[in-house]
């Protein structure tokens, strides 16, 4: 198997006095989420605890219905837990009002969705600026930042295109650039490569590799082992509970990167 022991799960191991304390992008403790319906209560998360240090790259896996999107939605301040605590940096979001959640969501969270969620009437640069619009910040400086991000994801020559004039992979690049525009605590991605072919999947994962190498924390949900093995750590949920939490060995990450590169080269040679 390609993974080693877990780290950083609850309770957090006591750090040795010689080590500098680890900063957490998020700290999750006994997180529960129940959806109360007419005839039943769905216990989507049943007490999940783990920490994500800054700079980590976590893949969340698990069967359909195991609570992955529910967890990501809590991390993204889209919804509140029924109980437990969820720290984003120094803020406990489980005690925040809806307004406070909306504020932190627009200022400090970057989202990437399977279906891109771009605004069709807006150009690439305008789509990247959307989170800033919600903060009432739109001006030449913000446009400059959006152009810079578009270039970083390889869309410098597509600035004025609309989503319908872009491929799926290019649309997902816009979504990644948009997720970075507010300098987020972390990038949350729910099956970001779910709609993409293998060449484009590799291109998107290469962008995540680069962002993580620059220090950006990434938390990504996926059903695909090969996508998860590009991360530094795999957290598996089962029935709303944390099932396993394992580090991915660097050699396994390297092997899957090489496998993707070979597959992409073969596909391109056939074109
Ligand atoms: N708004 C909601 N109201 C009621 N039940 C919900 C709601 N959202 C999710 N659930 C239920 O909570 C459980 C976890 O759902 P969740 O969407 O988190 O699963 P998932 O792991 O993301 O699955 P998938 O891999 O299919 O996307 C499921 O049983 C689901 O039916
Ligand atoms: Mg889901």
Describe the structure.
The structure is a single chain. The chain is α/β, with parallel strands linked by helices and 271 residues long. The protein contains eight helices and eleven strands. The strands form two sheets. The protein has a seven-stranded mixed β-sheet with strand order 1-11-10-4-9-8-7, with helices on both faces. A four-stranded antiparallel β-sheet has the order 3-2-5-6, covered by helices on one side. Strand 8, helix 6 (198-213) and strand 9 (218-221) form a beta-alpha-beta unit. Helix 4 packs across helix 5 and helix 5 (168-180) packs parallel to helix 6. The longest helix is centred in the last third of the chain and has 21 residues, at 250-270. The chain starts with a strand and ends with a helix. The protein binds adenosine-5'-triphosphate and magnesium ion. Adenosine-5'-triphosphate is lined by residues 35, 37, 42, 44, 62, 64-70.
Question: Main traits of this protein?
Answer:
binds adenosine-5'-triphosphate; 8 helices; 271 residues; Rossmann fold; MacB-like_ATP-bd; ABC_transporter-like_ATP-bd; alpha/beta; ABC_transporter-like_CS; transport; 11 strands; ATP binding; 4-stranded antiparallel beta sheet; binds magnesium ion
CATH topology: Rossmann fold
Task: Give the CATH H-level superfamily.
Answer: P-loop containing nucleotide triphosphate hydrolases
Structural class by secondary-structure content: alpha/beta
Ligand inventory: adenosine-5'-triphosphate, magnesium ion
The N- to C-terminal Cα distance equals 34 Å
Tell me how many strands there are. Answer: 11
Strand content: 25-35%
Spell out the helices and strands N to C.
EEEEHEEHEHHHEHEHEEH
State the low-pLDDT regions, or none: 1-17
Approximate helicity band: 25-40%
The global form is: globular
Biggest sheet features:
7 strands, mixed
Top CATH class: Alpha Beta
Count of separate structural domains? 1
Strand order of the largest sheet: 1-11-10-4-9-8-7
